[in-house]
Write a structure and sequence with these properties.
The chain is built from nine helices and two strands, in the order αβαααβααααα. With 220 residues, it is an all-alpha fold.
């Protein structure tokens, strides 16, 4: 029974339970897409139905991760299937559990306000935004923002972090950013701002139907 509900996997060469970061990132991408679609439906159609389903699924999935075992989390299982041909990248399970407890707290708050009470407010908006930010950083960059708090709360160094960021080491040449590259980034930001300033009126014009396909379809 202990082996079934244990948090993390026992892998040879690692002295603590670990998880596969690749499937975690895949799972985060799936959840991010669901929450993002729910937010878009709220903003553009004032439709909260999908959001309520997404929040309920999100909370259920994280409760299984934290209080049962990550190996039984539906989104992590789907993530495992998606990345099954990729070499695993192992991360410490302990800091992930701490991060997912925060996920339970955030999704639980959303569930109470939006599903149980059937309301929305700045609280739900801020919590939703926080969830999106956490999921986006995890899926896009492999950065667990909630894990950053682990060291502060537990006063101990996390082990086996994604990309070995927990280990102090010198950067390789391919990781270094030159002054010229930084200037390119700032220049590109200035280019975007200038484009918005100069072409906003032009870009704001609604495109016309070039071949008249949609216009003729709507007239029928």
């Amino acid at each position: 029974m202990k082996k079934i509900i244990q948090f993390g996997e026992t892998v040879e060469g690692y002295n603590i339970p670990v998880l596969n970061e690749r499937e975690i990132r895949a799972s985060a991408g799936i959840l991010f897409l669901a929450i993002f679609l729910a937010l878009m439906l709220i903003l553009f159609k004032n439709d909260f139905v999908f959001a309520k389903y997404a929040i309920t699924i999100f909370l259920s999935d994280f409760i299984i991760r934290v209080f049962v075992s990550p190996k039984f989390s539906p989104s992590l299982i789907i993530g495992r299937l998606i990345v099954r041909n990729q070499v695993p990248e192992y991360v410490g399970a302990k800091q992930k559990k701490f991060a997912w407890i925060i996920g339970v707290a955030l999704s639980g708050t959303m569930f109470i306000f939006m599903v149980v009470v059937n309301s929305y407010s700045p609280i739900t908006g801020i919590v939703c935004l926080m969830c999106l930010i956490f999921l986006f950083f995890e899926s896009a960059f492999g950065i667990c923002l909630a894990c950053k708090l682990y060291r502060i709360v537990y006063q101990e160094k996390a082990q086996y972090c994604p990309g070995e960021v927990c280990n102090v080491k010198s950067k390789q040449d391919i990781q270094k950013t030159s002054l010229a590259q930084l200037l390119i980034v700032f220049g590109f930001i200035a280019y975007i701002v200038l484009a918005v300033f100069l072409f906003n009126d032009q870009f704001s014009k609604k495109p016309y139907d070039l071949f008249g396909i949609y216009s003729s379809a709507q007239s029928k």
